[in-house]
Design a protein that fits this description.
Elements: H1 2-23, H2 28-66, H3 75-80, H4 90-144
GO biological process, one term: regulation of amyloid precursor protein biosynthetic process
GO cellular component, one term: cytoplasm
Amino acid sequence: MFGFMEKMNEKMSSAMHGTAQTYKDAERKEKFMMRFFLKEIRNQVLALQFQFDAALETLDAQAREERQDIHPVVAEDLKKSPASTIVPGHIARRAKRQVSSMSSGLEENGSLLNVQIDRLASLLDRVERKASQKNILKDRFLFTCPIWGRGP
């Protein structure tokens, strides 16, 4: 699994580098699409992170069941203890993430999702309006163009 993650990281880095190079010369529509897809990719990667966190929690719970001397890191203990006593690494980073996620709460995560959905809906509405305006202008042009044999 680690090898897969390294390969994915390399491919994502090279794709991001290529996107950065082509973004400068891209048209407005292409730039919009690049930003849109990058945000969607970010959301997919975050979804993977949540799955990894859930798997890690399950493995930690199983380890605690197997050995009684394993105790979970408590966020309040991290806040109280001086920085020199905290061992850097995965456990400390995870505990800090847990502290920040506890302060944000699940309701906020749900509301963030709703905000993203609303924003996407408004963007789609804007795109549809622009497309319909272009069709209206195209129809007016065809209707008033003397070449097509139509006109007022």
